[in-house]
Amino acid sequence: TMKLQSPHFQALFTPGLRSVAELFEKKNYELRIAGGAVRDLLSGVTPQDIDFATTATPEEMKEMFMAAGVRLINNKGEKHGTITARLHEQNFEITTLRIDVVTDGRHAEVEFTTDWEKDAERRDLTVNSMFLGLDGMLYDFFNGYEDLKNKKIRFVGKASERIQEDYLRILRYFRFYGRIAENPGDHDPSTLQAIKDNAKGLAGISGERIWVELKKILLGKHVSHLVGLMYELDIAPYVGLPLDGNLEELDRVTKNTANLSPKPVTVLTSLFKQKDDVTTLDLRLKISKEEKNLGLFLLKHRQELTRALGTEPLRPYQDFLMDSREANTNSKICELLKYQGEEELLREMQQWTVPSFPVSGHDLRKMGVSSGKEIGTALQQLREEWKKSGYHMDKEELLSCLKKL
Fold first, then answer.
1. Final residue before a domain boundary, out of 133, 150, 167
2. Are 169 and 209 in contact (CB under 8 A)?
3. Distances in Å between the alpha carbon of 241 and those of 37, 207, 285, 360, 377?
4. Would you say residue 388 lies in a domain?
5. Per-residue pLDDT for 348 more than 80?
6. Domain end: 115, 130, 150, which one?
7. HSE (CB half, 13 Å, CA atoms) of 234?
8. Is the pTM of this model over 0.85?
9. CA 97 from chain center: how many Å?
10. What are phi and psi of 98, to 5 degrees?
């Protein structure tokens, strides 16, 4: 046993949490911090959100909160035992300890329990199966803390049983491996075998859930190793990846984008060889329109839109942006520069203010150009001159150009 008293842990005790703790204590219901928040606290990280677990049933919690005049919000999680209470402008999500009675690889029917170990047993990975008392006492039934210190990712109990309860856990294994493990390739062979044996189960998981996990994998560590494993273990076809993904290009692009905070699609596009690959991904994962457009943009321009030789390497990108009639072109170009590993040019592009063309049709009318068609042609010619000057010519210079044209 160990007791945690870190500043991160102490910082959780807001007026809201103190009030919640008091209510549970009065009724003699046990309340502990659960899952991912415990893992974060033990790693010295402030958790983004905190889940609580309790021995109280949903009915007992509702009764207790209502008697205390506490507002309850969103009862969607109630059948799984989750009650959300709002105190002092803060939401508290508290779930009754439970056992999964029947699972079909996607959903579970649950039964409530007061046994903390039974609840820990149905969780996916040892590092996610710990509880932390509000006094800082750690409850760790499956050596999760040991695994966390050694940067090991293991399933609770038998890997194949955990996976068959929810096939998405295959991708969660990869996600946490990319977050916690120090080195690629440090897997237990029996775990990988269990993943391979059950890969087909991912076919029944919704695209939206898969995409949430896949995005996190693509932004973690060891990306090319983990995606390579997805191919080796026959996972790729069930999650929308192309059958013959370009793993060498992926390896190159993950190195290019290492410190540049790319979007997940930017990394993923490296696997693609043709437009159909983006379509297949979209059909399976229901990616957003913006994500799909970015994939198609990178696929189309990654080879021909590149730095210029000479003193103005950024010019091709600037010209492309100035000629573009589409929204978001600037951010797409920035993702392309990340893809290509052009760190310097990316910085320049992010600092570049898109200039506005200084001449209008009104200026040309004042100079005696009257027909709409002539104005259109003249404006187009002047835009070309302006572009050649690197967008430096001002209105005067451009209009004096007009006289020569």
1. 150
2. no
3. 31, 12, 10, 48, 47
4. yes
5. yes
6. 150
7. 10
8. yes
9. 29
10. -150, 165
The reply to whether 365 falls in a domain is yes
Q: Rounded to whole angstroms, what are the CA distances from 373 to 11, 228, 360, 402? A: 68, 57, 14, 15
pLDDT at 108 over 90: no
How many structural domains are present in the chain?
A: 2
b/e sequence 300-319, b meaning 16+ C-beta within 10 Å: ebbeebbbeeeeeebebbbb
The DSSP element (H or E) to which 108 belongs, if any, is strand 108-112
CB 98 within 8 A of CB 119: yes
CA neighbor of 276 nearest in space, from 251, 244, 247: 244
Radius of gyration of the chain (CA): 28
Q: Are strands 31-34 and 51-54 parallel, antiparallel or unpaired?
A: antiparallel
Q: Where are the alpha helices (DSSP H) in 188-314?
A: 189-198, 207-218, 223-232, 247-256, 264-268, 275-285, 289-301
What does 46-86 look like in DSSP terms, one character per residue?
Answer: --SS-EEEESS-HHHHHHHHHHTT-EEE-GGGGGGTEEEEE
- Does residue 371 lie in a domain region? yes
Instruction: Render pLDDT for 19-60 as a digit per residue (tens, 0 to 9).
Output: 999 999 999 999 999 999 999 999 999 998 899 999 999 999
Q: CA 193, CA 111: separation in Å to the nearest integer? A: 31
Alpha helices in 312-353 (DSSP H): 315-323, 329-339, 343-351
Q: What is the dihedral of CA 204, 280, 268, 198, to 10 degrees?
A: 30
